[in-house]
Amino acid sequence: MLFDRSLFAQGVRAALPVLLGVVPFGVITGVAMVASGIPPFAAIVMSLLVFAGASMVATAQLLASGSPVLLVVLTTLIINLRFMMYSASLRLHFAHAPLRWRLLIGYLTADNVYGLMLQRFSDRPDDPGKMPFFLGAGVAIWLVWQLAVLAGVLIGAGVPTSWRLDFAAPLAFIAMTIPLLRDRAMIAAALAAGVTVVAAHALPLKLSVLLAAAVGITAGMVFERRTAAS
Amino acid sequence: MTLSLWLTILGMALVTYLARASFLLLPPGVETPPWLRRALRYVPAAVLTAIWAPELALQKEVLSLTLHNERLLAGAVAIAAAWRFRASFATIVSGLLALHLFDWLI
Q1: Cβ–Cβ contact B85 with A under 8 A
Q2: Nearest to A55 among B12, B38, B79 (CB)
Q3: I need a labelling partner for A188 at 20 to 30 A (CA). Which of A9, A113, B45, B48 fits?
Q4: Is B45–A216 a contact, with Cβ atoms under 8 angstroms apart?
């Protein structure tokens, strides 16, 4: 059952349209890391070990400017805290899977893999096909992502700055954010975080991101309670 | 720089993996506290917005909410495209094209 090939292939196929967005974001991530001064080999190792583009782009500048290790790690944790939410949600599907599979699922959980999984199985958590489907989508996205980052690292400074490809990174984050805004509390969380981060941008060491995350989460929860009470 | 770079990469990998595996590794009987699940629900929208909002609203570290800020305008186009098509490729391409268009117009 774990190795049902047709279900694995279904996962791969479901990932295909998503790959169109994975490629440019991966290339940008590779380019951004090398452009900020991270040695190519370290950038590739980082992509393999960390496998989280948003945090790699956001910390590239911090890393290159020689910021303290703890600060970069803390910023990474805040940006990747969203994976905790995915893991809490995936637990409904995979809590009873063998440990080694759960360890692998943890590694492969990227935003879009989680999105595909949710689209397909949120209303039927008992479907036995979800493991091979998840692995199919996860492996496809992982592989294409790593190749795209590698391409970006190799191209490195070869991309003319006049193409303004650096703007693709925020665009990729916008593409990830907007589909999340399905209710008012979620919109409140995003708006509050956006306003806070801009208002607090002068804070040193990217503390504005940390503060904005806290304010955004609080706003979402307050709004949720208010909507529920009225 | 080298040693601290590798330490940083290892630290990033560790916290990222722990966040990803966290709830998957708890034994089956353990319940997630409801308040934590509620709070976590808002993490992606809040954190992701905190990353891209400054890229649109600030020009050289200064707040710029005017029609002369081509990144703000291109970002608005991308948000509309994301809302309409819900596809990352369409969002990225329309945002980049809009950026060049506004750059040329302004």
Answers
A1: no
A2: B12
A3: A113
A4: yes
Partner residue opposite B21 with nearest CB, options A49, A103, A185 = A103
Which run of H or of E encompasses A91? helix A82-94
| ipTM value for the complex | 0.86
Question: CB under 8 Å to B84, separation ≥6 — which residues?
Answer: none
- Per-residue CA distances from A165 to A64, A168, B28, B49, B68 (Å): 19, 5, 45, 19, 20
Task: Indicate which of B5, B14, B20, B58 best probes the interface with A, i.e. most A CBs within 10 Å of its own CB.
Answer: B20
pTM for the full model? 0.83
Q: What single letter denotes the amino acid at residue A126?
A: D
Per-residue pLDDT of chain A (230 residues; tens, 9 = 90+): 456 788 899 999 999 988 988 888 898 899 888 888 889 999 999 999 999 988 898 888 778 777 788 888 988 998 898 898 889 888 888 888 889 999 999 999 998 899 888 878 866 767 778 889 999 999 999 999 999 999 999 988 777 778 787 788 889 889 889 988 989 999 999 999 999 999 998 887 678 888 999 999 999 999 988 777 65
Return the residue in B1, B3, B6, B23 with the most chain A beta carbons within 10 A, the one to mutate for interface testing: B23
